Amino acid sequence: MPLHIGIVGCSAEGAALCYRTLCAEGAQFLGPHAHPEISMHTPSLAEYVACLDRGDLTGVGELMLASARKLAGAGADFLICPDNTIHQALPLIAGRSPLPWLHIAEVVADEAVARGFRRIGLTGTRWLIDSEVYPQALAARGLACVRPSQVERDETHRIIMDELVYGIFHEPSVARFQQVIARMKDEDGCEAVILGCTEIPLIIGDANSPLPTFDSTRLLARAALRRAAAPGG
Q: Where does the pLDDT of residue 233 fall: very low under 50, low under 70, confident under 90, or very high at 90 and above?
């Protein structure tokens, strides 16, 4: 039997994209119309934002842990979190978690190695860009992580939090992400870019990005499917 996947949700659009990917691509591993059993728990996004705004990673971790315990009670075998930003708090609670986790940045970093890229740009919320979530994961594999400028991270943070998390997609916002990525390509020498907010793939992808992309949302979902479909592997 495939393993039961538990989704620790944060923002609705990113969690929904992860869930849809698990269901739509499960057939590649398990046969027509099949996907692993999936459960999801999502507290109010406002609770996470309040913690992040005051720099309270302990509070973020406790929200994640509360979801983990509820998903363990629902029968999940392992956990994924389709939110890059709150992975900052995962080390604080991993030792108390009732279930193991797949780490989104490690999944993306492994894909970067597999695809042969060495210098990689990062996009995401201001909270994520200011953190060491991706720099640490990439550095552990000998890869460089390039962050956008302060102005760029403030602008993209606003687009994410005021638009994308609400399912609002404006053409000027798409263009701004493209400009940021193009500058990291031309000025910083980036070879690829991480879509490090799980909503960014809703507006940016290989078809319209100046650089090859790492879709953190779908990469995490696919890693979860591989693990669920081959529990002994």
A: low
CB 198 within 8 A of CB 83: yes
CB 128 within 8 A of CB 97: no
Task: Give the architecture-level CATH label for domain 104-215.
Answer: 3-Layer(aba) Sandwich (3.40)
Domain-wise residue ranges, the chain: 5-103+219-229, 104-215
Q: Which residues make Cβ contacts (< 8 Å) with residue 208, sequence separation at least 6? A: 174, 178
CATH code for 5-103+219-229? 3.40.50.1860
- Tell me what pLDDT residue 231 has: 72
What's the rounded Cα separation, in Å, for the pair 117 and 89? 27
- Confidence band of 26 (pLDDT split at 50, 70, 90): very high
Distances 44 to 48, 156, 159, 185, 187 between C-alpha atoms, Å: 7, 22, 20, 36, 39
Contact 71, 79 (CB under 8 A): yes
The span from the CA of 86 to the CA of 26, in Å, is 26
Tell me, what's the pLDDT at 230?
87
| pLDDT recorded at residue 222 | 98
pLDDT tens sequence across 27-41: 999 999 999 999 999
Q: Tell me the backbone φ, ψ of residue 101, rounded to 5 degrees.
A: -120, 150
